[in-house]
Amino acid sequence: MQHYHYIFTGTGLAALLTVREMVQHPFYRDKKILLLDADAKKTNDRTWCFWDEKKQFENIQHKAWEAAVFADAGFERRFAMAPYTYRMIRGLDFYAAVFEELHQNPNLTFIQEKVVDFQELGNHCLVKTENQSFTSNYIFNSIFNPERLMAQKKFPLVHQHFVGWFVQTETPVFTPDCATFMD
Ligand SMILES: Cc1cc2nc3c(=O)[nH]c(=O)nc-3n(C[C@H](O)[C@H](O)[C@H](O)COP(=O)(O)OP(=O)(O)OC[C@H]3O[C@@H](n4cnc5c(N)ncnc54)[C@H](O)[C@@H]3O)c2cc1C
């Protein structure tokens, strides 16, 4: 059974941002890291928009806005967002860019397999996929488990749903350089 210092169960946004930071730090230079995901991360499964003042991911941005509009039927206000830029990146571009960076690191292994179980066993952890098992010192888990979340009483639970829509109109109605809030 192969042993790793760290195993990431699920390699979405949280895991990839974390690993990207880890490999830049000298402490992790000799640490073996396994990334496990059921998905190949080769589809544009979502897009992200965020306020940014540090030019983060500017190289892969799909769109960026410096101005926004907030409006309803009887009210409209346009405003500049400086010092922030509202930036949009596509999931697919993010996954491709981060995997390209990470593939150059010999201590990282990516395996596309569904994780079926993981456990803490005293001084090590055990992770089982559909086909094999691995041990590690630590697990970073991103696999959503709603039962566990609902069972805890320490924090209030807030459900947030994201649904992505692409809207196409027959005649132009959007202002491409101005992001529309709560449209
Ligand atoms: C359409 C859409 C639009 C969004 N827009 C925004 C936005 O504009 N701004 C913003 O801040 N947030 C946005 N979000 C929310 C944001 O994407 C999530 O908060 C974020 O992806 C959560 O990161 P995560 O790493 O925890 O989970 P995910 O990114 O969902 O990663 C979880 C990973 O675990 C893998 N996985 C699941 N089960 C298993 C298993 N059994 N075995 C192996 N792998 C498994 C999945 O394949 C996935 O790769 C959006 C979400 C969606 C769906």
Polypeptide structure, described:
The protein is an alpha/beta fold. It has one domain (2-44, 91-176): FAD/NAD(P)-binding domain (3-Layer(bba) Sandwich), CATH 3.50.50. The chain is built from three helices and twelve strands; from the N terminus they run βαββββββαββββαβ. The protein has a six-stranded mixed β-sheet, with no helix packed on it. Helix 1 packs parallel to helix 2. The protein starts with a strand and ends with a strand. The site of flavin-adenine dinucleotide has 20 residues, from helix 1, strand 2 and strand 3.
Features of the shown structure:
183 residues; FAD/NAD(P)-binding domain; 12 strands; binds flavin-adenine dinucleotide
Corresponding CATH superfamily:
FAD/NAD(P)-binding domain
Bound molecules: flavin-adenine dinucleotide
CATH topology descriptor: FAD/NAD(P)-binding domain
Terminal residue distance: 52 Å
**Gross CATH architecture:** 3-Layer(bba) Sandwich
Number of strands: 12
Structural class given helices, strands, pairing? alpha/beta
The helical percent reads: 10-25%
CATH level 1 name: Alpha Beta
Series of secondary-structure elements, N-terminal to C-terminal: EHEEEEEEHEEEEHE
Number of domains: 1
Spans of at least 5 consecutive residues with low confidence: none
Percentage of β-strand residues: 35-45%
